[in-house]
Amino acid sequence: MNKSAELQQRTKNFALRVLKLIEHLPNSIGGRILANQLARSGTSVGANYRAACRARSRAEFASKLGTVAEEEADESLYWLELIHDGKFIAQNRLASLMSEADELTAIFTSGRRSASRHQPSTIKNQRSSQ
């Protein structure tokens, strides 16, 4: 399995774990808000990574990876932190999922930077052609 396929599977597993976790949130106003927000961001990570993998160029890949997948992973971490800090779910149930959200954010950040680094600067290209 190549790295892209591995990361697609990893982000899908993350989404499934998020969906299982939100089933344990309380049926209160706060619990429902957190469940909805985490469900949206947690399932968007993998969907947006898949979209980035289908990008037509390296620049589009870097853009989709950074502006969508990276942000959704980081947003998921934020909602998990709120769940933790608000004591909605025990820490031992959250620790590995929080770690995974943090790792995915770091992977996407690194991938975006790497993909962007290999792009010729449009400003340099514009100056060269003048």
Tell me about this structure.
There is one protein chain. With 130 residues, the protein is mostly helical. The chain contains five helices and no strands. Helix 1 runs antiparallel to helix 2 and helix 2 runs antiparallel to helix 3. The C terminus is likely disordered.
Mean pLDDT: 88
Sequence stretches where pLDDT stays below 50 over 5 or more residues: 121-130
The strand count comes to 0
Proportion in helices:
over 70%
Largest sheet: none
Q: What's the tally of helices?
A: 5
Tell me what portion of residues adopts beta-strand conformation: under 5%
Structural class: mainly alpha
**Shape, per Cα inertia axes:** elongated
User: What is the CA-CA span between the terminal residues?
Assistant: 46 Å
Rg result: 17 Å
The sequence of SSEs as H and E is: HHHHH
Q: What descriptive keywords fit this protein?
A:
single chain; 130 residues; mainly alpha; 5 helices; 83% helix; elongated; disordered C terminus
List the helices and strands and how they pair.
Elements: H1 3-22, H2 29-53, H3 58-85, H4 91-117, H5 122-129
Helix pairs in contact: 1-2, 1-4, 2-3, 3-4
What's this, in brief?
The protein has 130 residues and is mainly alpha-helical. It is 83% helix and 0% strand.
